[in-house]
Amino acid sequence: MTIEVQRIGPGPLSPDATQYMVRMRDGVHLATDVYLPPSPGPGPTVLTRLPYDKCGEYTFMPQIAAYFTARGYRMVVQDVRGKFRSEGETLLFVNEAYDGYDTLDWVINQPWSDGAVGMWGDSYYGYTQWAAASTGHPALRAMVPRVTGTRLGELPVPAPGQRTHDVEMSVHRFYPLSMFHDRDILDWRIDWTRRPLAAQVEEFFTAVGSRSASYDLWFPHPVSLRRFPAGSPFDAPAVPVLMTIGWWDNCAPWQWSDHRELQRRPAWARNEYLLLEAIDHENTSHFDPGVPASVQAMAGRYLDPAVEFFDVFLRGRDADIPRVRWQLANSGDPALRSSPAWPPVSAYERVWRPAGAGTAVGGPPGGTLDPVPGDPAAPSGQIALSGPAGEAALSGEIATWIHDAADPVPSPVTDPFAFLREFPDERDLAGRPDVLVFTAAAVPAPLDLAGPIRLDAVIGSDGPEMDLFARLLDVAPDGTARLIARGQQTVLEPGNAFAVTIDLGQTGYRLPTGHALRLTVASSDAPEFVPAPGTGEHRWTAVKTTPNRQRLALDQTRLTCTVLPG
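RESULT FIELD:
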């Protein structure tokens, strides 16, 4: 098979910017564009450090810079080390802390700077903000990291003594083979059905005539890349931070993990603000699905919160920014609601139990999803089985299915980063024999979900490892089934019975009158996630696959959703 590779180099320099080659402490120079406002005297600066080409079409940097400069900010956009016009080795994560520090130093020594800098950006250029914050540079006065996380792209490996970890996403090892192979972007396709996957990578290296340093450090077993050589950003002085998290962002688990860590640190907790939007990783809105024609089409919702935040923390303007602003998806109203905390103080937990092992496989509606006895309308009715993963006893009603990596459950979208552009009807997936389906009764009045969702379960397998995927869906009266939330975990040596908690993330979502909740359970979601081969071998080197029989103890399984009073 011939590997076809399209190389995408840097776009043309913007006529609105002046490019500088900024020297880092080790002598490497990083390509840096400076955009100045109409009145370029000393003032606050917005800094963005990204690996996707500061001049390219993908990130709209010239248009974004125009938005900030029109509001009086200076904007600095930099290609990170080893990417596009910047010098140095192309290597994920490890240089961003001190390169961020040195860039901040350079910015505040320019005549147009007043010494105050805010950082802004999505995904990897949200991560570069945390890297700079870890150094404690005093010029960094505010951050707006969007759809990102300090552990962004971290390869899932079990911690010592643990038998569960995140499921490996296909993009985990593919990202260093496309975005971080060398200075350019290398666009190519891997055939996720052709094993071993690692052999295709070697074919790719032969085709392009070079290797990826980041991939080689991660394969077959990952070396821990030192993301924060100056220390954890959470141990650094707290900086006002506006965290934008998307309900359908496939990277949201990393950002929610950051939120939980910030809340454990009093100084950071006092400086954290949340903006929770009905968006995916590519900023597609649930209220306006599809691809925006330009950044101007989404500039207000995309950039105005950052401008407002910087006006307060870089310029000292007197304005009250709510601690939490959030959207209630599927409500027909995109307006942001506000709350002093998340979840909202009035929210409480409701619990459902799956039942009907005999009908759970074979197509919707499948088994039932029944309310757990107790008062579902008040906190006193909370019932939870949450606890640490570990050995358990499988008992009661047992639902079973076969996981076969040679015929995995297909991922419902072609691009999981832009989930809402497709926002598929998932009802057909519920008809597969390797998917368990449980559907609740239709709700007699709107049910508003607002907060975390989890599945506590006892599972088992005859295989050496087991992936457990849980999806919560909104089923309309016509049978249409669309995703609300999801979560997944890998269990090592599950044996006959193992207790596990699946974090399905958090949401703000309205289930309309006459609609029903549906829980589906499976052991694959490919190619978004690399399927377990069933043999216990490395997922990228395995040649053969073996079907595994999986088990779910329904009597010992609970779905817990956080809801608002009706």
